[in-house]
Amino acid sequence: MRALFVALLLVYASGSGKVAGANGAKGNRFVCTAVPAGTDLSCPVETTNRVQSTSPQEEELRNTIIQLRETILQQKETIVSQQGTIKELNSKLARCEADVRSRGSARRKDYSKNTMGDLPRDPTESVEQLGKTMQSLKDRLESLEQLRTNTSNGAFPSELRDLLKRRLSDLEGQLLTRVAELEEEKSQLYNETAAHRQRTENTLNSLLERITELEKSNSAFKSPEDFKVALPLRTNYLYGRIKKSLPEMYAFTVCMWLKSSASPGIGTPFSYGVPGQANEIVLIEWGNSPMELLVNDKVAQLPLSVSDGRWHHICITWTTRDGFWEAYQDGERLGTGENLAPWHPIKPGGVIILGQEQDIVGGRFDATQAFVGELSHFNMWDRVLRPIDISAMANCSAYMPGNVVPWVDANVEVFGGATKAALEICEERLFDS
Ligand SMILES: *[C@@H]1O[C@H](CO)[C@@H](O)[C@H](O)[C@H]1NC(C)=O
Ligand SMILES: *[C@@H]1O[C@H](CO)[C@@H](O)[C@H](O)[C@H]1NC(C)=O
Ligand SMILES: *[C@@H]1O[C@H](CO)[C@@H](O)[C@H](O)[C@H]1NC(C)=O
């Protein structure tokens, strides 16, 4: 009974476009009809058939009810179409979800490719994209809220209204979940971008370290001994220096490859000065003199001649015992002698200079005594090498690094414009000489 009255009031209110109170209906009166228990009250239209209308008031009421019935039918149609809209929104949501998910996984795959690989093309761009997607979802959510507000103000039958309300709050829940997921995705994207940046930075740092290392050791050559020192000008400031000093020695062998066309004399291929004796060991070809070996400032003339502009391999051995020496050129022993600083021990702790003669340890060079040309494989041993070892080195069948001074890149510094360059292969030097 009361339910019917409320339903009718509601219908009336919808017709007049206002929310009406129980006593707000001016001049109109409604008749309440008894309804048998168990009758479906949700559709007021059903009840109209039971009204026995005879009076004009009843007639009027019937007409009103017929009009209301049409209105309700129209509203039913509206609801059906709104349900369609909801379905469509649902499917769009699902598509959007799938899209975002696949994009997320594609991005993750991108990241794991390799450390120096492509950076994410533009992380801010994709984050913006996500932001737009979220904004559009929020807009849709708002319009659905609006729809719900409109609907709850309207005059839908309570059952349908509740249904719609439930569907709408379901949808709202889904949207909120989706928005939360997108927020999560966005944060993850930020994190991944940060992690990627970190990895890139680490890789760059290790590359930088490696480059610095390479620059330090300067091992730009195939192997550390495959280089030569070029001293192109006769100056008192171009030179090379061996970082290692010599121990005290009672014998030595010194070998090297030389290429020079300087005249008169190729100058000083190397000199070893110690405190108190600038000419502890010197190899020099000066003015019109032949090549000379100085040990403790004593002199021996060597039968060597290399100033033809081609590569030559030379070796000189010396022993304190009788001051005996040997001179080799291109693997052949061309001369020997004795009494060169006999019983003198070679003093330790001096400086080996390539290309200049020292008047004090490590300095006071004289341009007229400078070596002009190229020099390589300067090796020193603290013993006298056998002729067979020397000829094997000279004919390229063997390479022996010196045991007291090995020719390695890291051991040789150049100054004043002297340069290091890659060394021709041994056979090429051999063919040249
Ligand atoms: C809800 O009602 C307002 C005002 O009547 C109208 O502007 C708006 O378009 C309606 N919204 C929907 C989704 O029907
Ligand atoms: C992103 O990093 C922040 C802080 O490190 C953390 O709180 C958050 O949970 C991370 N988000 C994801 C999705 O991993
Ligand atoms: C190089 O010298 C070594 C030692 O004297 C000798 O055994 C070898 O046969 C030589 N090789 C060539 C190709 O001349």
From TrEMBL:
Entry keyword annotation includes Coiled coil: yes
InterPro entries to which the protein is assigned, alphabetical: ConA-like_dom_sf, Neuronal_Pentraxin_Related, Pentaxin_CS, PTX_dom
Coiled-coil segments: 58-99, 127-217
Signal peptide limits: 1-21
Annotated region described as Disordered, given as residue ranges: 103-125
Biased composition (Basic and acidic residues): 103-112
Sorted UniProt keywords: Calcium, Coiled coil, Disulfide bond, Glycoprotein, Metal-binding, Signal
Name of the featured protein: Neuronal pentraxin 2a
Protein source organism: Danio rerio (Zebrafish)
